Amino acid sequence: MSRRLLLLALTSAACFSDDPPQLTATVTGDDSSTTSTGAPVTTEVAPTTTTTGDDTTSTSATGTTEPATPTTSSTTGETDTTSDTDTTGGPVVDPCKFETPVCPAGPSGTQGSGQEPLDRCNFPLTRAPEWDNLGPLADALAEALPTWTMVDILADLNNTALSADAVPGDVEALELAFRWDNEDFNKYWWIPQGLTGSADARDDGRLDGREVALIGWWFDKELANVSFEKGVRVTLVDVTDASELRLRHILLVEPVPGDPVDFKPVPVRAGGIAWYGDTLYLADPTQGLRVFDLSRLLEVNANVDKVGYDPKVADYYGGLYSYVAVQIGAYKHASACAPRFSTLALDRSTSPPELVVGEYCDGLATCASAIGGRVFTWPLDPVSGRLPFDITWANSAAYTGETQIQGVTRSDGALYLTSSAPPGDPGALHVVPPVGPATVHGWIDTPRAVMLDGDRIWGMSEKSGARFVFAAARSAYEQ
């Protein structure tokens, strides 16, 4: 504890920059005051429609269809599931095990026409070798460094956000909003993308009685004009009291073998995060999902801007952050239909809850069709918070009928999609029912991820100089 107290004393102001000198940015909008080889499978089978033809966005598949045999470890908490059983031991056989699906040719509808179901058997996720490789390394790091929980971090927040009365764009029924401090509001090499929170993580929607949001950012070293990588960070924000919005940044890291065990940044353009229990999922755009342990955050030295172990001083650093969250596993897609993991959310309206993944398509750089973006869902084991099988097929898959999707979530079969179309800053929110055409609503400018929280819907914006997070009355968007 002596080292932690020293770090807290050194970093209590926490207003120093963790990056190169700040450049000028123009503010826009109103800142008003701111299977192993046996293929165990999912228990829930959703009705699907098989579409034939060639996938216009198909690339070679990544991941493996022969995942490593699971082993139990203190980090992963997973047990051998090489037989066709669910995590409770009951026999399960998913029809997808015996299917040879064909990738779809592309959407047949028009923009706004609604969801177009796809054959879910096209979209399996496999348990990747990272579960076996990273687990022991994470355990070793937890032995070498002090560990803390998210509840502990909630009692050790070291910076503030600023309450806002309005946000840029056309948001109806605004209930709560905040902007970042001047450094994070303007800095354009840390880019906010993902959004989750205690509404996803806990059954009661609270972390130790507090309502919190968790924001994901990715680091652009070219914009920062530095040679080293920082990867991805998340920001825990206590939003219980709008007059006192406190926060702390946490760096995500991947353990690497060594003597001692080391860690490195996670250099992906992270587009989405989802928090369930003590597990954090990070969308890895072309690979699938990375998984991080939030039950054992590591305390590191925050005084030097480097990441990892420095043998000269025998100490670990977290890029000027005091805490890091360690990757413990991954799920890789094994689909010839090449799903892209652009954004990520959690659907708590289903039993069990499901991860929701959406694709960004613009018809130019990505996808042959501007409305070729798909949405997929995969079930979570409600106890472990992990995917339940070595091979887990999607519970559902569909074309969305919308373009340039930046954020997605789902409830009772309805999709909530944020879009950066048309060109320019204005954003839109598309609500797409299970059957029938979508409705479109005004939304925040430069929108990114979206989250449902009971009677509220959360959103956020990306643009440097106009970065806000907000909650609005959900009823205003379901009429």
TrEMBL record:
Keyword match Signal: yes
Q: Where is this region: Disordered?
A: 17-117
Signal peptide span per the entry?
Answer: 1-17
Keywords assigned by UniProt, alphabetized:
Signal
Cited PROSITE patterns: PROKAR_LIPOPROTEIN
Q: Which domain of life is it from?
A: Bacteria
Q: Where is the composition biased (Low complexity)?
A: 24-95
- Name of this chain's protein: LVIVD repeat-containing protein
Protein species of origin: Nannocystis bainbridge
The upper taxonomy is: Bacteria, Pseudomonadati, Myxococcota, Polyangia, Nannocystales
